[in-house]
Every structure is written in structure tokens, then in C-alpha cells.
Design a protein that fits this description.
iron, alpha+beta, 14 strands, three-stranded antiparallel β-sheet, four-stranded mixed β-sheet, Four Helix Bundle (Hemerythrin (Met), subunit A)
Length: about 450
């Protein structure tokens, strides 16, 4: 993937799209070949689909958009469209549907991919908004990678021995930099109108003015979060919203998901392996209510979505917004923990090459970061290419997460990328950092 201003050459676009599609399919194959068929067809949590549903859904979406919409081909399997419509059947109901069995799902997805690559080979990347700059191919690559992340969540939820392995991130020296960074007051450009594969809710670019604020230099760590637990944070109503308090009491929540206390220490289960909770990693698998309560306990708050993006993209010296905290260059392993290279966050303070101009680290990768904001459209928002991608989710029911996690591929992670979920969700790879107001006129 290259910077947007160089995406004009058809052959470069073709290569970019091919690489993105290939990377996504290799990851899909890994996630669906590391367990036996009964594990693919089982539902490991009512919150998640059977893995075999995701596999065929990936193929069905690719057929709908690349074969039918872009190329005008006749439907290959019209009778299965309803089975793999995410809005027609809730996840809890999907195991009861007449889903394609694993071998047939693989064959279908592979046949769709073969035809899609034939279309890509002769694509002109112009003519309509869907085809311009290869948007449809980028949209499909992002869709597959988002479902790959969903399948990785399912692997974390499944019981039994580990099915996936990956090397750990490189050890990092204990971070000794400043605990927080001042982001000066003033306007910045939020969102994008130029990123060719940006999705509709990231558009259009618009100016926002944000008062001065301080933001954590790194995400909140397990050690810091344990201090909240040990101080009785889960039993003190002062720190919780009424809805959050009701939720944790109703579900007996006393620690992040997958944690348990044993022998005077905290343990966690991570992809089939039980281990001591590492103190220097960003805390993971907390819901919005937990993140908000911790921030209140610490005398701070969650950053708004606009504050997060300003900290991640605004370059004060150049007075412009960049694609990523480090600039416009595509992510490399030196910048961020992305792409399922590892199966855990890197220690807080890692990736100095990926810090923002103001010195904020790990804004991209490692853990999705809860913000205080509801998911709302930007001024001038237009749903494209279908309203069910994000428009139907706008409103106070969903909270925005930013930055991506170790489970996110770079094609589906930008400084403008917006994720969202219910404030009760904990199975996702979610963490957070905190913020606080600064005095007016701070600079």
C-alpha cells in the first residue's frame, strides 16, 4: 500500500489490490485450517458466528460486490444470499441455518476469488465511484480482514488447547518517558476526502477545533489497571455510570475478561494458554464501562474521538493532518503491532518510530482504544456504497474505538479509521488511554 497521491497508475493499483486480497485470504486460510471441521461448525459463543459462517460470508460479499456489482456477472449461488446476510440472521441463530459445510464453503470462496482476480486483471479503475482507484477491491480486502479479526476473537473464546501460535513482540525497556502529553488548543482537519480506500464514515474531511488537553503517552497498562482493582474499583459505585454499575453487578464482573486470581496473582487465558498477566502490557478485554470507571478513579476521563484523532494525526509544525501518527508512509513492523504478527499487545512504550509529532506512542495497533464519543456521522456524510455499513449504527447505542489492535491488518487501519461497539463488549481486543482538560490557552 502506497501513499494516496501516488495511486494513479493502473498497474500500481492492481498490485496494491492483489497484495491486499492475497494477504487477507492467506490469513483466512490460517484461521480456518488450524482446527478440525467440528470446531469450524460449532458456535463457541453466542456473541460470535461459527467460523464456517464467516468463511462463506467472506466469499458471498466478494461475489456480491466484485462479481455482480463491478463486473455485472450473474449470481453464482443466489439461494445462499439470505444465509450470509449479517442483518437477516443474528449471530446466535446462525448455527441453526443450513450453512455450507466447510469443504463447500472453501470451494465457494475459492471459486469467487478466482473470478474476482480475473476481473482485477483487466480492471480500469475508473468510471464510477465504486471502481475509482480500485475502491471496491479495497473495500472487499478490508471486509475480509475485519472478519479475520472477528474469527481471531472466536479463537480466543473457544475452549481447548491453543490452535494458533505466533512469536511474541520484541522485549522493550521499561518506558520512562512522560506519563502524558499536552495537545495544544486549536483547529485540525478530521477525517479524509483523499484516502482512496477510506470508508464512508471516515468522510468527508472537515475542520474541528479542540480545546487544549493532556493525553496518556501510552495505553493504560495491566499494572495500572490492577491498582484500580486492588483499590476496590469494581465495588465502588462512585466510579461507574448508572448503566455501567448495573451491568457489572448483574454479570458479576470483577476484572477484565479472561482474568482470574489464583495464589495471590492474576492469571489470564490467551488463545488456549494460561499465563501470568504481564504488568507492562496495555490492558485488554475491557468494556467501555470499565474504561470509563478506571478513568474516573484516576481523576481523568476518556478522550473524545476528535481528541484522539488530533493526538494521532495533527502535526503542529506543518499544521496538517497526516495519515498515521508517524507521517504518511505505510505501516511497517517498526511503526506498530498490526496484522496478527503477534497474538498479544507489545509492552507499553514500544515502537518509538511510530510515535506522533507530540510524542504519543502506540496510537496505532496493540489495542483498540475506547473513546468517550458516540458513533455519529461527520458533517456532509453520505452513505456509500450501502447504508448498512455504518449509517444504521449511528446513535448513542455505540461507542467509538480508535487505533486498531494487534489483530488488525494495515489495510483496515488508518488514522481516520473508525470502529464501534456496544459499551458492554469485552471479547473484542479493546483497551484505552485516558485524558484530562488543560487550562485554556495552553500551548
Amino acid at each position: 500500500m502506497t501513499a494516496p497521491d501516488s495511486l494513479t497508475d493502473p498497474e500500481s493499483l492492481r498490485t496494491r489490490a492483489l497484495d491486499a486480497l492475497t494477504t487477507a485470504r492467506e490469513r483466512t486460510a490460517l484461521l480456518t485450517s488450524c482446527v478440525e471441521d467440528p470446531e469450524l461448525t460449532a458456535q463457541h459463543s453466542p456473541l460470535m458466528s461459527p467460523l464456517v459462517w464467516d468463511l462463506a460470508h467472506i466469499g458471498n460479499q466478494e461475489e456480491l460486490w466484485l462479481l455482480r456489482e463491478v463486473a455485472g456477472r450473474e449470481a453464482m449461488r443466489p439461494e445462499i444470499d439470505g444465509l450470509y446476510d449479517a442483518f437477516e440472521h443474528p449471530r446466535a441463530e446462525r448455527p441453526s441455518l443450513p450453512l455450507l459445510p466447510p469443504a463447500e464453503a472453501r470451494q465457494y470462496a475459492a471459486e469467487v476469488r478466482g473470478r474476482a482476480l480475473d476481473i482485477l486483471e483487466s480492471a480500469a479503475f475508473q468510471g464510477t465511484r465504486l471502481t475509482e482507484a480500485g475502491f471496491a477491491f479495497g473495500m472487499i480486502a478490508q471486509h475480509e480482514q475485519q472478519h479475520d479479526e472477528t474469527m481471531l476473537i472466536t479463537h480466543q473464546l473457544r475452549k481447548g488447547p491453543a490452535a494458533l501460535t505466533a512469536p511474541d513482540p520484541a522485549p522493550a525497556p521499561l518506558f520512562t518517558g512522560p506519563a502524558e502529553v499536552l495537545v495544544p488548543e486549536g483547529p485540525f482537519v478530521m477525517g479524509t476526502s483523499t484516502e482512496p480506500w477510506a470508508l464512508d464514515n471516515e468522510r468527508p474531511a472537515h475542520r474541528r477545533t479542540v480545546p487544549a488537553f493532556f493525553i496518556d503517552t501510552t495505553p493504560v497498562t495491566n499494572a495500572a489497571y490492577q491498582a484500580f482493582i486492588e483499590d476496590g474499583g469494581y465495588g465502588d459505585r462512585r466510579w461507574w455510570t448508572p448503566e455501567g454499575w448495573d451491568h457489572i453487578r448483574a454479570h458479576d464482573i470483577e476484572a477484565p475478561l479472561f482474568w482470574r486470581r489464583e495464589g495471590g496473582q492474576w492469571l489470564r487465558r490467551r488463545f488456549g494458554v494460561t499465563e501470568v498477566v504481564p504488568p507492562d502490557e496495555p490492558v485488554l478485554h475491557v468494556c467501555w464501562y470499565e474504561a470509563d470507571a478506571y478513568a474516573r478513579w484516576a481523576g481523568r476521563r476518556l478522550p473524545s474521538e476528535a481528541e484522539w484523532e488530533k493526538a494521532a494525526r495533527h502535526d503542529p509544525a506543518a499544521d496538517r493532518s497526516t495519515r498515521y501518527p508517524w507521517g504518511d508512509a505505510d505501516p511497517t513492523p517498526e511503526h506498530a503491532n498490526l496484522g496478527q504478527r503477534h497474538l498479544r499487545p507489545a509492552p507499553a512504550g514500544s515502537y518509538p518510530a511510530g510515535e506522533s509529532p507530540l510524542g504519543v506512542r502506540q496510537l496505532i495497533g496493540d489495542v483498540w482504544e475506547w473513546t468517550s464519543s458516540d458513533l455519529l456521522p461527520y458533517p456532509g456524510f453520505v452513505a456509500f456504497p450501502y447504508r448498512e455499513y455504518s449509517q444504521v449504527f449511528f446513535g448513542p447505542e455505540y461507542k467509538v474505538l480508535r487505533g486498531g489492535s494487534f489483530a488488525v491488518d494495515p489495510v483496515a487501519c488508518r488514522g481516520t479509521f473508525r470502529n464501534w461497539d456496544y459499551p458492554i463488549r469485552r471479547q473484542i481486543f479493546s483497551g484505552f488511554r485516558t485524558a484530562r482538560d488543560a487550562a485554556p490557552g495552553s500551548s
